[in-house]
Amino acid sequence: MEEELPAENSIREPKPAIEPIPEVYVLRGWKEYAGESLLIIFSVLLALILTEYINYLHDQKDTNELISNIRNEMITNRKHEAEQYAYQLKVLKSIDSALASPEMQKKIVANGEFHLNYIAPQGILYRYFDDAAWEVAKSHNIASKVDIKTIYMLTHIYADQEKVAKIEDEVAKVIFSPESRKPENVRTTLILIRDNYKGWAVDRAAGLLYQYDEAIKALDK
Predict the structure, then answer these.
(1) Which one, of 168, 154, 141, lies nearest residue 77 by Cα?
(2) Secondary structure (DSSP) of 72-120
(3) Which domain of life is it from (predicted)?
């Protein structure tokens, strides 16, 4: 038998050798590392500064809004105090007239009732004060955002407002007392009412109005 010769395409040729790709190393100096580090530090600091500045702008806006609200509240309360002061002076005149008139005294205390309308036709307290803006400002730590002189002034004003408003409770105590319903006590009752008006409201009105003016000017800066 004849031997079969292998086909030409069955002859395997040796594969060419693959040469390894040389690795390239880039040598960097300390200056390049230092430059990159400084760039990172600068970027972080810039971000912090921008964040702080934005927070400052927001805080400043909130503070200005709080101050503006307090100022508007001061303007309203000053108007109320001026109107109330004028009304209370009329009440004092009515009391003085009643003290000089036995006939009027008989009308004020009659049938076991005290008729307040003869001396204070609009009630004991003619106007009421607002303090919502001040309370909100205190809850937002306004004391750390405004100078101490202004804080002291505002604190004093709102404290005086409370004292003026207290006239309603104090006069009510006098009127609701059973002794005030006795005709023989009418003069004493009227004097007590007059003294309460003077002590709690009238005598401090001029000073309070002055404080309002000063506070409004201070908050307008």
Answers:
(1) 154
(2) HHHHHHHHHHHHHHHHHHHHHHHHHHHHT-HHHHHHHEETTEE-GGGT-
(3) Bacteria
CA separation for the pair 81, 161 (Å, rounded): 9
The mean pLDDT of 90-109, rounded to a whole number, is 97
CB neighbours of residue 88 within 10 Å: 22
Cα distance between residue 101 and residue 116, in whole Å: 16
pLDDT for 1: 47
Classify residue 65 as exposed, middle or buried by CB count within 10 Å of its CB (0-12, 13-18, 19+): middle
- Helix pair 30-99, 203-219: axis angle to 10 deg: 160
Give the integer Cα–Cα distance in Å for 157 and 130.
12
The one-character DSSP state at 124 is S
Distance CA 69, CA 76 (A): 11
Q: Which residue has the higher pLDDT, 29 or 57?
A: 57
Q: Which of 104, 203, 124, 193 is nearest to 160 (CA)?
A: 203
**How big is the CA angle at 79 (ends 168 and 171), to the nearest 5 degrees?**
10
Q: Pick 97 or 53 by higher pLDDT.
A: 97
